[in-house]
């Protein structure tokens, strides 16, 4: 196992997750469908707890405006947003058996396998091998038919090995053509059959549907929750009394027809997202609470570092990263900090988290800067939260398409007086000369940036004539403008209101990926007795908070057991009773370790009647009190106290 993968006993974890019904493949008895999962009671409770903490941390603490918008989305919306054209991955096919691959994943897996083979060969020859390239277990690596094909000990030329490492460090930066070239150059084939694969073609990831009985209104299942938030921007701004900046938020399902779903919950076709759209003034992307996060130290992997073929992050405070321009602005930096705090609060391991900046080609079509919170798992570094600066892209395209204003109007403290070069047409000559081209040419001249207009004016003054070229209009082509057709001059304007389209900073959380990564970070196997699997969740996250179990199946424990469970549950504390008489108390503790239940109350003749502790468990769960506090403050009372007393 290479250095960029977390070493855990995954088979044991996977069997635990199935056995204790965290989640399981959907439609299993029909054979299942790749990339679709059902959550069981344990996984559902865990997911709900993560979402509640997310709501507390973001929606409530930051006073965000939470919405819940439609999943089914008319095609026109997603055409305008660019998803119909551009929300795609590159796919290639085995030329003989038709097996389909996501092109970047295939290239990555094959090249990784070759580097591992190289490391094996070098090790066998007694060479020193860099830690990152060294397979942890040679025998396993050889036997293991990996996604990239069996690892064969074959030494690569030094320069080739170096180049492969550099390609892998920036694999997300290759487009279809680039991936096609890599496939040809390195003779990348289907690892299982050895057959050649086709050149990559684009595959749109959205699930298509039709709305209504006529089948004429095309729709898609949304691939992100963001669009609903953008379309409601004006209503939200009004709800916020026209005050900027503000953020909306939504938790809900999204759908992506992934080419090759894999790695359990990490790449699925239906998943829960929690997204924030923070609307901010483009001229001033400050955040009022930036100071609260500026001293947090984070591990950053900037684009410049990746382009050098390096994978080692830098550790830096958020304040410094923004000051040095590594993170573009304070709002983006603020959210990197808040994401960090959230992931720490749920129990992600600090050393297994980094923020990686997107490379230029990797960036979604709407983004101008993007940092991913990546968490190290046994599958490698996984993007769990994307934090993108979507600029004014979405509001602008929707406003242009619908002709609805999606902007902020702010009364200026002082009126703004300024001179600007404008073009006015001489109607008597302009229309008759240009005929049907008159309108598009006029629009062109009126919307031209001032510097361009100045150039046209210079030409008119010098030659009496200027030529312009239109495209995308009903009168495309070259048109001549003469001096008598227009007058270009400076005019004075006074503005009382500033109108602008906000920029959007979008932290976007994949709840399933976070949940799975957290499970890996909370998982261990006790070496002492029978290799028992243990999950150690923080109390606020744990699916069940308290285990109640009788010391034995003595009849006198039944009532206190029931009473304690009832009291805990009515106080909002999910508690499970494990009174299976057949299992020893040790066995019962062990099987609840598998659920990550943080507290246990054993009912014996003493504790069954101590009602004080019951109330305290609630504080424990919220994190206000620790178990040590409880044991320090309260002595377990004797059997004389009545079970029904508070
Ligand atoms: N197929 C998926 N399965 C599970 N979670 C996903 C999937 N696609 C995206 N996510 C989650 O949604 C978040 C935001 O989505 P975003 O569009 O930024 O992902 P992405 O960059 O397309 O992901 P990737 O590059 O891994 O396909 C991701 O950080 C991730 O946690």
Would you write up a description of this structure?
This protein is an alpha+beta fold. The chain has 22 helices and 28 strands. It has a nine-stranded mixed sheet. Strands 4-11-10 form a three-stranded antiparallel sheet. It has a three-stranded antiparallel sheet with strand order 6-5-9. Helix 19 (558-570) links the parallel strand 26 and strand 27 (575-577). Helix 5 packs antiparallel against helix 7 (158-169). Mean pLDDT is 88; it is low at 139-145, 611-616 and 631-646. Adenosine-5'-triphosphate binds at residues 256, 258, 267-268, 271, 273, 383-386, 508, 510, 512-513.
> What number of domains?
4
The bound ligands are: adenosine-5'-triphosphate
Q: What is the top-level CATH class of the largest domain? A: Alpha Beta
Based on CA atoms alone, the radius of gyration comes out at: 31 Å
Helix content: 25-40%
By DSSP, the count of extended strands is 28
Largest sheet: 9 strands, mixed
How would you state the average pLDDT, rounded?
Answer: 88
Amino-to-carboxy terminus distance: 55 Å
CATH architecture of the largest domain: 2-Layer Sandwich
CATH topology category name of the largest domain: BirA Bifunctional Protein, domain 2
Classification by helices and strands: alpha+beta
Inertia-based shape: globular
Which stretches are low in confidence, meaning pLDDT under 50 for 5 or more residues running? 139-145, 611-616, 631-646
Write a compact overview of the structure shown.
With 646 residues, the protein is of the alpha+beta class. It contains 22 helices and 28 strands. It has four domains: 13-67 and 223-394 and 504-509, Bira Bifunctional Protein, Domain 2 (BirA Bifunctional Protein, domain 2); 88-204, Herpes Virus-1, CATH 3.30.40; 411-500, Signal recognition particle alu RNA binding heterodimer, srp9/1, CATH 3.30.720; 544-633, Rossmann fold (3-Layer(aba) Sandwich), CATH 3.40.50.800.
């Amino acid at each position: 196992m290479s250095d960029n993968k977390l070493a855990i006993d995954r088979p044991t974890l996977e069997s635990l997750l199935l056995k204790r019904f965290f989640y399981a493949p959907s439609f299993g008895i029909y054979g299942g469908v790749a990339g679709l999962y059902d959550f069981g009671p344990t996984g559902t409770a865990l997911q709900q707890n993560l979402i509640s903490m997310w709501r507390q941390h973001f929606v409530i603490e930051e006073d965000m405006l939470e919405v819940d918008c439609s999943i089914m989305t008319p095609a026109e919306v997603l055409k305008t947003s660019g998803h119909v054209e551009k929300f795609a991955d590159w796919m290639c096919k085995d030329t003989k058996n038709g097996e389909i691959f996501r092109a970047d994943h295939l290239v990555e897996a094959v090249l990784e396998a070759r580097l591992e083979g190289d490391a094996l060969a070098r090790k066998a020859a007694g060479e020193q091998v860099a830690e990152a390239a060294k397979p942890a277990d040679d025998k396993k690596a050889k036997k293991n038919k990996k996604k990239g094909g069996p690892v064969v000990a074959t030494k690569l030329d030094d320069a080739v090995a170096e180049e492969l490492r550099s390609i892998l460090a920036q694999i997300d930066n290759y487009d279809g053509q680039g991936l096609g070239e890599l496939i040809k150059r390195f003779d990348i084939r289907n690892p299982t059959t050895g057959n050649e694969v086709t050149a990559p073609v684009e595959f749109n990831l959205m699930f298509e549907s039709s709305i209504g009985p006529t089948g004429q209104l095309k729709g898609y299942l949304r691939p992100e929750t963001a669009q609903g938030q953008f379309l409601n921007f004006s209503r939200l701004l009004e709800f916020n009394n026209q005050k900027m900046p503000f953020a909306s938020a939504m938790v809900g399902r999204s759908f992506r027809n992934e080419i090759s779903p894999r790695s359990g919950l990490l790449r699925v076709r239906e998943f829960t997202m929690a997204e924030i759209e923070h609307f901010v003034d483009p001229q001033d992307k400050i955040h009022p609470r930036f100071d609260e996060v500026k001293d947090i130290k984070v591990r950053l992997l900037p684009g410049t570092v990746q382009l050098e073929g390096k994978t080692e992050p830098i550790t830096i405070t958020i304040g410094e990263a923004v000051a040095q321009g590594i993170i573009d602005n304070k709002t983006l930096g603020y959210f990197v900090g808040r994401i960090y705090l959230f992931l720490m609060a749920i129990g992600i391991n600090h050393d297994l988290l980094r923020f990686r900046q997107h490379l230029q080609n990797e960036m979604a079509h709407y983004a101008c800067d993007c940092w991913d919170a990546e968490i190290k798992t046994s599958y490698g570094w996984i993007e769990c939260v994307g934090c993108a600066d979507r600029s004014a892209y979405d509001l602008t395209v929707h406003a242009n398409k619908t002709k609805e204003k999606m902007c902020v109007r702010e009364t200026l403290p002082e009126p703004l007086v300024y001179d600007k070069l404008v073009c006015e047409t001489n109607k008597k000559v302009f229309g008759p000369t240009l005929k049907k081209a008159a309108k598009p040419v006029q629009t062109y001249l009126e919307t031209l940036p001032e510097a361009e207009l100045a150039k046209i004016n210079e030409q008119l003054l010098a030659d009496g004539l200027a030529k312009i070229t239109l495209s995308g209009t009903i009168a495309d082509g070259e048109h001549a403008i003469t001096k008598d057709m227009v007058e270009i001059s400076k005019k004075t304007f006074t503005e009382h209101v500033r109108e602008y389209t906000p920029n959007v900073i979008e932290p976007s959380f994949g709840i399933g990926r976070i949940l799975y990564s957290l499970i890996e970070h909370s998982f261990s196997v006790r070496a002492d007795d029978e290799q028992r699997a243990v999950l150690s969740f923080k109390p606020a996250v744990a699916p069940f908070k308290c285990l109640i179990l009788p010391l034995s199946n003595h009849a006198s424990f039944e009532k206190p057991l029931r009473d304690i469970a009832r009291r805990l549950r009515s106080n909002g504390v999910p508690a499970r009773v494990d009174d299976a008489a057949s299992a020893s108390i040790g066995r019962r503790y062990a099987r609840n370790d598998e659920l990550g239940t943080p507290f246990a109350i054993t009912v014996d003749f003493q504790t069954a009647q101590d009602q004080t502790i019951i109330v305290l468990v609630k504080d424990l769960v919220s994190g206000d009190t620790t178990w040590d506090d409880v044991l320090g403050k309260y002595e377990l009372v004797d059997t004389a106290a009545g079970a029904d007393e508070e």
